[in-house]
Amino acid sequence: MGLNETPSANRVHIGFFGKRNAGKSSIVNAVTGQDLAVVSDVKGTTTDPVYKAMELLPLGPVVIIDTPGIDDEGTLGELRVKKSRQVLNKTDIAVLVIDAACGKSEDDEKLIELFNKKEIKYVVVYNKADLNEQEETENDNEIYVSAKTGYNIDKLKEKIASLAATDDITHKIVGDLINPSDFVVLVVPIDKAAPKGRLILPQQQTIRDILESDAVAIVVKENELKNTLNSLGKKPKLVITDSQAFKMVAADTPEDINLTSFSILFARYKGNLEIAVKGAKTLDSLNDGDTVLISEGCTHHRQCDDIGTVKLPRWINNYTKKQLNFELHRVRNFRRI
């Protein structure tokens, strides 16, 4: 898989934040060497978060996010500020852009508090240094630059890269659960919901992780699992199944073989497993009339038996035996209920 094909979920997400006219969009363009963001002297030119997947040296594959000003005003302005704050939930590295002539504001300090609260690594960038003679800051996470002249832009990129380099790059989907030469059986249903001619991305990523761990990946359909296990001649270390086939696969998998699903592995990989477990336990406490929020992270075209809009509500209703209400949202349009 090339750099241009790297999934967005596997790229370092770099969010650019700051007040209106601090020069966020100008800094984005200077750092990337491209005209990714619209630049204007008019306050509030950036009205929605702008996402761009690209390769940024010396980091490699990244997602650049340009955000609206955190000091926007009015009813629409409040919505834009809210969207900017929501971007923090998918930000790995934050770049706080401040007008060097104005210095840090109360809004900037509140953002820094949020960075620290969410444990987001960040760098404070004092832009427009060409208009003000400033001494170099002694703080490692601060830097004076000029988007207009290019002053210190390369050093800024190095600072961003150094923050990314400290991330744990050994985090695995499944590689830390298996050993070299282990057999891992992946159960992949091929039905009308499956894409034609290829496996879906989580399946591809899991196979790649198994191979990088020097283990053996064996891919079968759900109706071939029992025969495959009987004919292997060696007990697999792990069976991984698509969630929709879990019941059938569990019945065919001996109890002395570890069993999990792609969904569980990726919840663990993304750090959401503990929350997901708590959510599953909550099903036992639901009552008639309660509301369940289903927030989808993918952007696939919904089909007649879609997992988010059809299968999950059906499974939950069958399990709880309750009359429940369901609210469906895409992640970027997520709201609390």
From TrEMBL:
Record keywords, A-Z: GTP-binding, Nucleotide-binding
Record GO terms (molecular function): GTP binding
Any single biological process term in GO: tRNA methylation
Hydrogen maturase F tetramerization domain residues: 276-334
SUPFAM superfamilies reported for this sequence: P-loop containing nucleoside triphosphate hydrolases (SSF52540)
Every G domain range: 14-128
Any single Pfam family the record assigns to this protein: MMR_HSR1
Domain Hydrogen maturase F dimerization: from-to ranges: 173-271
Gene3D superfamilies: 3.40.50.11410, 3.40.50.11420, P-loop containing nucleotide triphosphate hydrolases
GO terms under cellular component: cytoplasm
NCBIfam families the UniProt entry points to: GTP_HydF, small_GTP
Name recorded for this polypeptide: [FeFe]-hydrogenase maturation GTPase HydF
Source organism of this protein record: Acetivibrio straminisolvens JCM 21531
Lineage of producing organism: Bacteria, Bacillati, Bacillota, Clostridia, Eubacteriales
